[in-house]
Amino acid sequence: MKLPRAEQPSKEPKAPKWNVRAALPEDIDAIERIERASFKSPWSRRALSEEISCRSWSQVSVVETAQGVVGYMIFWRVAGELHLLNLAVSPSCRRQGAASILIEQLIEAAVQGGQNQVFLEVRKSNTAAKRLYTEAGFVEIGVRPGYYSDNGEDAVLMGLRIEVPSPSAP
Prior knowledge:
Shape: globular
Structural class: alpha+beta
Radius of gyration: 19 Å
Distance between the termini: 66 Å
CATH class: Alpha Beta
Number of strands: 7
Number of domains: 1
CATH superfamily: Gcn5-related N-acetyltransferase (GNAT)
Helix content: 25-40%
Number of helices: 4
Order of helices and strands: EHHEEEHEHEE
């Protein structure tokens, strides 16, 4: 009797199984930890908590694996558009697709909410983030000189126009 040959295990690392959901107040410790590991001038715990719980126009989403929350984003729905304020992924989970999953969720939120534009600012020196946003379809539309207060660095303003389906006629 001949037995089937076992397949060689893939040498590619397995991508984590991502789950994106609305942030809850109990996620604040993980969000704050990621925030502090990701930014030179991190938001305060209070500011992060207020985005989760106090602002009707704000939405905070987290991406998690079996190990817990590994990334988050904060965006506002204002005047028919979305504005991405913050997106960060734990250093140990970067370049594995978590940020792309959050961007996909951001675009889906715009479509579902009927917003046809998404805007964001990114540090001029942050080439990895600019590449991520460009790959998602964002384009550079301007510069905000001296935008970042910690070092006076310019921000690149990026935007994405979304074709929002029109409501069906009755």
